[in-house]
Amino acid sequence: MDEFAFRKGCTYGTVLVDVEAGRVVDVLPDRTSETFATWLTEHPGVEIICRDRATAYTKAVKEAAPNALEVADRWHLLQNLSAAVEKTCHQHRDCLRWLARSPPVSSRWERRVLVTPRARW
User: Fold this and answer.
1) Does the structure show a pLDDT above 70 at 121?
2) How many whole angstroms separate alpha carbon 98 and alpha carbon 80?
3) How far apart are the C-alpha atoms of 4 and 12, rounded to whole Å?
4) Under 8 Å CB-to-CB from 103, ≥6 apart: which residues?
5) 23, 75, 80, 103: which is deepest, by most CB within 10 A?
6) Per-residue pLDDT tens over the stretch 93-112
7) Which of 70-77's residues contact partners 24+ apart within 8 Å by CB, and which partners?
């Protein structure tokens, strides 16, 4: 499942896709938890829901399909990983700059005794 724009910035809907069959199952007129919960109630037997992290969808799944397994889709996993890496690099930018300016380490022994500015980490 994912949301999409009928009209960007104005009206959004939800597309439901059977990932195994590779086909669209349904298109919901909005992206509210009530609409999705109603759809889940009318279509019992949903076992796995692949979705983004929108709270409206979480609420609907807990209400209408509490036994369904929720999983994050690949695109959102990569987006979240990218954001976490970027945030971490930003937080440690001074240390990364220091390491980039350090002379290269030539031997295994030197790598073990290389002192990094741990106080900054």
Assistant:
1) no
2) 27
3) 6
4) none
5) 80
6) 998 888 888 777 665 555 55
7) 73/2, 76/52
- Going by DSSP bridges, is the β-strand pair 48-51/69-72 parallel, antiparallel, or unpaired? parallel
Identity of residue 16? L
In the structure encoding, which two tokens stand for residue 20, read together?
């195994």
pLDDT tens-digit profile of 37-83? 999 999 998 999 998 777 888 899 999 999 999 998 888 889 989 99
Distance CA 65, CA 63 (A): 6
Enter the pTM of the model: 0.66
> Is residue 56 within 8 Å of 31, Cβ to Cβ?
yes
Residue 11 tokens read as 């009206």
